[in-house]
Design brief:
Elements: E1 14-18, H1 21-24, H2 53-56, H3 60-68, H4 83-97, E2 101-105, H5 108-111, H6 122-137, E3 141-147, H7 153-159, H8 166-181, E4 188-192, H9 202-206, H10 218-243, E5 248-254, E6 257-260, H11 265-287, H12 292-300, H13 311-317, E7 322-326, E8 330-333, H14 367-381, E9 385-389, H15 407-426, E10 430-436, E11 456-458, E12 470-472, H16 474-484
Parallel strand pairs: 1-2, 1-10, 2-3, 3-4, 4-5, 5-7, 6-8, 7-9, 9-10
Antiparallel strand pairs: 11-12
Helix pairs in contact: 4-6, 8-10, 10-13, 14-15
């Protein structure tokens, strides 16, 4: 039997980039848009690096202040990078880089400003019509996330975010509205961005205000809200398949690959448990049921998830077509973690890995981990994978003639794309790669502008000063060549 050896990326590999509505659009008071959870995020000098958890755990007082604010200059996600008005220019630049795909999200609050209206907001629908038309004009396939770190603030105040079962039906209505409207324009969909992150940042991901609950009940609250998101995700899969038969719809995981600090079997077990816990979120959406280790965990912690009749059937019947994920770093764990050096910036913190370099924001850089993660996920699920976020936040400096020589960024991407190519050669079925982010935007965690990810520089500082002009960085030309050679020249 002759075996086919894979030598590189497939011809139809989808190269591109990823952004989220709340981090780029701005225009938060335009087109009939309602206020969202993201519009509450504050940037102030006093909230320096390392203090960003405060953005995640917001209080009722902060929400009231944000809703009442007349000076909105310290709410950067309300201005984004003005993509709302400049998307044509930005798409032309992505087109110039040769993008085949662009991952965007739809702001729920543009379509249903409060989440509870009977009819969708036509002006909001029209904005995304124009956006998708312009993408298609630039030969860029839209990959659309339904929920990327935002929901109507009205639902936070009226329903405690995703804790209220009612939100499942409201989200379902939103999903159906956009599937019907964009059925001829969008083939690739993602339900929830980093659905696992509700445990790490309840407000950003689930609209949960932790102060409203006692420390004894919060974990139960989070898993209950997550259950509602799982059901909503499965219902979105169902409607997507019915309304757009040729569509592909995936789930999205923050892949937090965890290594054991030593070969002590107890360290190995701990690392195994961490990885198992990370996979819980994709297990439910890909296999269609809660894994038994989670049922044991819930029982031991006295967590009781209220399920409606039919929920298990919905989860089982409407599993996703592909697994998309973000990969920024790997983690290390140890039974002796208390006595070891830590890294602070990593999404989930943890023990320092002495073999890895870090970014300025303390995220450990691990390209080989991406190959391991890809192989491991494909071994586990045997469904197509999609890298929908990978990139490095860094400070960029404007040189003479406004040049930006970002060799550090090129080197980050070189390492990761090389290892991704190895995984493809290992036999992993990978549909595409969207870098985070192809253009500088507002940071999700810190609301800074100074933490730059793009191949394209945006002239704006943390306070919103600047011309908003777009400039091509050195990495722009490098990525353009990667795409032109289908990943042969890295
Ligand atoms: C991912 C999010 O977790 O990380 C993005 O999906 C986010 O929205 C990205 O921007 C990078 O994180 P940050 O905090 O540096 O913007």
């Amino acid at each position: 039997m002759s075996k086919q050896i894979i030598t590189g990326f497939p011809d139809n590999f989808l190269w591109g980039g990823a952004v989220a509505a709340n981090q780029v659009e701005g225009g938060s008071d335009q087109g009939g848009k309602g206020l969202s959870t993201a519009d509450m995020a504050v940037y102030r000098d006093a909230l320096g690096r390392g203090e960003y958890e405060k953005h995640y755990s917001i209080s009722d007082r902060q929400i009231q202040d944000a809703i009442a604010a007349t000076d909105i200059s310290c709410y950067p996600k309300r201005r984004g990078i003005d993509f709302y008005h400049r998307y044509k220019e930005d798409l032309a630049l992505f087109g110039e880089m040769g993008f085949k795909v662009l991952r965007v999200s739809i702001a729920w609050t543009r379509i249903f400003p409060n989440g509870t209206e009977d009819q969708p907001n036509e002006e909001g629908l029209r904005f995304y019509d124009d956006l998708f038309d312009e993408m298609i004009k630039n030969n860029i396939e839209p990959l659309v996330t339904l929920s990327h770190y935002e929901m109507p603030i009205h639902l936070v105040n009226e329903c405690n975010g995703w804790l209220d079962r009612k939100v499942v039906g409201l989200f379902e209505k939103f999903a159906i509205s956009v599937f019907e409207r964009y059925r001829n324009k969008v083939k690739y969909w993602i339900t929830f961005n980093e659905i696992d992150s509700i445990i790490r940042h309840p407000f950003t991901t689930g609209g949960i205000v932790p102060d409203r609950f006692s420390s004894g009940e919060i974990e139960n609250v989070l898993y209950q809200a997550l259950h509602h998101q799982f059901v909503a995700s499965a219902l979105a899969v169902k409607h997507c398949h019915n309304i757009i038969p040729e569509s592909k719809i995936g789930c999205m995981l923050t892949r937090l690959l965890t290594y054991a600090e030593s070969c002590d079997p107890n360290d190995m077990l701990l690392a195994h448990r961490e990885n198992q816990l990370n996979y819980f979120f994709s297990d439910v959406q890909i296999r269609g049921y809660y894994p038994s280790h989670m049922n044991r965990r819930f029982a031991e912690k006295n967590i009781q998830i209220a399920m409606e009749q039919g929920d298990e059937e919905i989860l089982r019947q409407h599993t996703v077509d592909f697994l998309s994920f973000s990969y920024y770093m790997s983690l290390v764990t140890s039974i002796n973690a208390d006595k070891m050096d830590k890294v602070s910036g990593n999404i989930a913190g943890g023990v320092k890995n002495p073999y890895l370099e870090k970014t300025e924001w303390d995220w450990q850089i691990d390209p080989v981990g991406l190959r391991i993660a890809l192989n491991d996920m494909y071994d586990r699920y045997q469904i197509p994978l999609f890298v929908v976020e990978n990139g490095m936040g860094a400070t960029d400096t404007l040189g003479p003639d406004n040049q930006i020589i970002d060799d550090y960024r090129i080197s980050y991407f070189q390492g990761h794309i090389r290892e991704m190519r190895e995984a493809v050669k290992d036999g992993v079925e990978l549909w595409g790669y969207t870098s985070w982010a192809p253009i500088d935007l507002i940071s999700a965690s810190t609301s800074e502008m100074a933490k730059r990810y793009g191949f394209i520089y945006v002239d704006q500082d943390n306070y919103g000063n600047g011309t908003l002009n777009r400039l091509r960085k050195k990495s722009f030309y490098w990525y353009q060549n990667v795409i032109a050679t289908n990943g042969e020249e890295i």
